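User: Sequence for HupE / UreJ protein below. Tokens please.
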Amino acid sequence: MGSEFLAYLRLGVAHIADLAGYDHILFVAALTGGYTLGAWRRLLVLVTAFTVGHSVTLALATLRLVTVDAPLIEVLIPATILVTSLASIVLARRPDESRPWRRSGWRGADGGPRGGPLLYLLALGFGLIHGLGFSTYLRALLGAESSIAMPLLAFNLGLEAGQLLIVAVTLMIGAAASRLLGARRDWVLLLAGITGGLATLLLIQRVAALNG
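Assistant: Structure tokens for HupE / UreJ protein:
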């Protein structure tokens, strides 16, 4: 039992952190790239919102309580990355004078980006879509398993471990890049541009495959 639990735990980590299927990595990076360790409370809320979203649909789809249209989900996932990247660009480029009562401009006092409620809603809603994507992979792994409760739990915990790893790496790269570029805003715009561009390519490829 213990070895099986660890096996599904590792599969969860490997799936979300897989460089070959980097769409989930792009989403987590786009979602959290504007934050610093000083904004850890709001970052925790953000990550929790995404976790709640994908945990719900991962469970429902794996238990076959909802039907998954796998090709459509594969198209929707890069769309979530693109929208998240565009939201980051809008928040980062918002001029300070548009809200003169907020002297700190586009960032909060803790170093995190403003627009928290919008990002929380994006994380929760888009988490539902990513959970359906995770379920397609997990159901293929489960095959004819008679009991799926333990594999589902282990796999979900693995996803969370991998997700936290991606967040940690994103924060470290962001801190280094901000110093190199001289401004945190420049890093956020650069990251959003990269994730948005890659998401656009993925979206085009998957729409073509869906229609082909």
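Residues 23-211 form one domain.
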